UniProtKB/TrEMBL annotation:
The lineage of its organism: Eukaryota, Viridiplantae, Streptophyta, Embryophyta, Tracheophyta. GO terms for cellular component: mitochondrion. Residues 7-60 form the Glutamate/phenylalanine/leucine/valine/L-tryptophan dehydrogenase C-terminal domain. It comes from the Eukaryota. It comes from Aegilops tauschii subsp. strangulata. This is Glutamate/phenylalanine/leucine/valine/L-tryptophan dehydrogenase C-terminal domain-containing protein.
Length: 65
């Protein structure tokens, strides 16, 4: 059923993205978890840099497929 819906939406020109790309909150939560395990805090610049890296890599993979 899922692929059927994706095909219909694609024919209408709609881009389908995985939820992790549409909502980066999960990635930010992962960063918080990593910081807690390692016992230190990243500054805002580091979080933004890491977020950009992860999201760009994931977006490129999805758009190639």
């Amino acid at each position: 059923m899922y692929m059927f819906v994706v095909q219909i939406l694609a024919k209408k020109g709609m881009l389908i993205l995985p939820d992790i790309l549409a909502n980066s909150g999960g990635v930010v939560s992962y960063f918080e978890w990593v910081q807690n395990i390692q016992g230190f805090m990243w500054d805002e610049e580091k979080v933004n840099r890491e977020l950009k890296t992860y999201m760009t890599r994931a977006s490129n993979i999805v758009l190639i497929i």
